[in-house]
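Obj.: predict assembly geometry.
Materials: sequence records (below).
Method: joint structure prediction, all chains together.
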Amino acid sequence: MKKILELKNIHKSFPGVLALQGVDFTLNEGEIHALMGENGAGKSTLIKVLTGVYTKDEGEIILDGKSVSIKSPQDAQRDGISTVYQEITLCPNLSVAENMYIGRNENILQNWKQMNEGADKILKSLDIPAKATQQLANCSIAVQQMVAIARAVDMDCKVLILDEPTSSLDELEVEKLFKLMRELKARGVGIIFVTHFLDQVYEVCDKITVLRDGKLVGEFEIADLPRVQLVSKMLGKELDDLSDIKGDTEGSNIDKDDEPLFETYELSSDQGIKPFDFYIRKGEVNGFTGLLGSGRSECVRAIFGADKVISGSVRKNGKEIRINKPLDAMKNGIAYLPEDRKIDGIIGDLSVRDNIILALQVMKGFFKPFTKAEANKFADEYIKLLSIKTASADTPIKSLSGGNQQKCIIARWLLTHPEYLILDEPTRGIDVGTKVDIQKLILKLASEGMSITFISSETDEMLRTCSRLVVLRDRKVVGELTGNELNQNQIMNTIAGGEENAEK
Amino acid sequence: MQKSKLQLSTLFRKQIFIPLAALLLLALFNLIADPSFFKITLGQNAAGDPVLSGYLITILDYGSELAILAVGMTLVTAASGGQDISVGAGIAITGSVILRMLCGSNSRPETLQMPIICAFLIAVVAGMLAGAFNGVLVSWFKIQPMVATLILFTAGRSIAAWINNNELPIISEPSFGYFGNFIPGIPIPTPFFIAVAVMIVTALLLKFTNLGLYVQAVGINAQSSRLNGLNPTFIKFLTFVLLGICVAVAGLIKVSRLSTINYSVVAKDIEMDAILAVALGGNSLGGGKFNMWASIIGAYVIQFLTTTLYKFKVDSSALPAYKAVVVILLVVFSAPTVREFISAKYKLLTSKNEKEVA
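Observations (raw structure tokens):
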């Protein structure tokens, strides 16, 4: 097979960090190549070097046998390297066709008819369910993602980089995306696929390149590298199997007759969830599960007061409390780690320290700021406790890797010493190592008496940690599973509509 | 030695470097063009009191009202990601309120109707109300700040005239002139002391409350701030009210200078200078992180520039054009890419020198 892209001995450093140290990478024509590594391993940096966002310190990029210098994203595009990022970088208020052709017209005048026809043709040939004249915002995220890919493909790209394209897609949408990827592969496009989902790697990829701490671990044929080994390569240690953390979640220290710590009664919010009842006991870990969009987040957001509550009540230790806004919930000992880290979690430009102290500071009050020394003490304590990788407490949080950002947000809430911690997708988009860390942390906190609600799209994570699962379908609670019922099949059945339905 | 050099190169990246460098350049220009710019003389004013005069004193004098406005404008910019363009009109309103309170219905009063401090406090309330009006539009109705404040920008001066029944009150009481000119026996213009007082209050606010943290958090990510228990709507509103207080203080200085008011001219275009001060301080006009002291220095730099242009007999109608040229230079110079470039070049230069020395 023909090599279309070769990176040789790439070095890149930032103040205080050696992000890439002599990394090699080879991509063949018509190949889907997974780039794997933990957060902070250097995947993003490598891609940014390749796409001209960063300039490499040292090394060579060979494209189609010729050494090229890529100094800006425009250079990369011109050379046939296109990137589709995790976040959609198109303009939602423009039409699909406009998005596909924006910035590519060399004439002053735009032939709209021709453009729309051209766009329709490409969409059709790639089997993307969208119309050229449709406004992009009206398409689902998956379709938007595909439009971004179509745009890239139409620009004659030889190398397509997909940076975590699947993290906000549901299974069906992922399937469609994979179909598109295979289609492109057949056309000879080389695809670099970055993802945290191991299943997906094994489903579509041909090869895997693993990075760790900015260094190349190796390049492997997919068939030669079983999952467990991949994980251990990424972590750099023999994995004490993930199932290791399956502790005795079976309510070791939960007294079943205990009064619930928090209860909701007929609670519903303006986000369209049906009124639901829910309770949690001290030291219990439970979860909300259901398909994407089934109302998992909306339920916990209602408890935290993040959405406007329109009916129902919340009780703490049997006494009714009023939660109209997040601050009310915080004062009642509830903490909430939101689903979307970037939009709802981090305050990007603020330092790691300010991000960590924020919630506690707000609870303490406007006129009682922490002294510098106090703030530093808190920040250092939690940076150490959760082993957050950051240059210093002064570093803006946005420059940290995803997993470390998430740890900062966890630190923010742990610092408030909550009685009830709600974690909404804390493991999304972060590396395996941190995922395991977070699950262990959940069990540890619960054993110390904290009540925790854990939501994850990955059911096995929830099975590992939760002792009770609330199942949702179409924004309605449809069941509750405990004990022996806690297994993949039972969950699937409940989601699908109860045992009767499944057995029919 | 090594250390001090390193610090110098990191200084180029520091935000406060921008206004400081601009100040230095302007000073250098004047020093070369005409050193008499820096001459300060001690003379006597009409009342026979000792006063300092000179271009630098003018800068200190007029830059102070701008610095006061820059304080409020920085907060508004940081929290809302937009600017208040109604501060000039706001000065007209608050100034008019002060005059109305002091004169009552008689536009040429023999005696003041109430103590100056009371009139000022009422003007502060008026300023806060105007700020609250803008704040409500921006934070509750989610109107873009420039559009929301366009209302008072357009209507403010008419409101100011209406407050005094379209008359031009003149105050003969000499003590009223102290705030915008000189206090007898003190040769430094009073506005400077008022600005220092505002700065001290601001510094205390930033140190002993969470104003800075909250405003920045809301400006960077309002949605996330809300989930941390903050009330972004209220915080944006608050910054407009605080700017209203600053406007009232500047209004007092303005009407005190002349002991009267000209509704259509007073503080004309001052909002643009105040916004420029924030930008020159290296603060993002899109909101988020801010550096208050850089904004304040930025305000004095702008006055420095204006005064320099006046000194070189630039016609007042041509002033904005000259100002624009200098502003372009300053903004280009302060752009992050340019500063990175300078910093890198500087590093290269020093490392070369060291090698040569070695």
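Conclusions so far: The radius of gyration of chain B is 22 Å.
To do: check interface contacts against the pulldown list.
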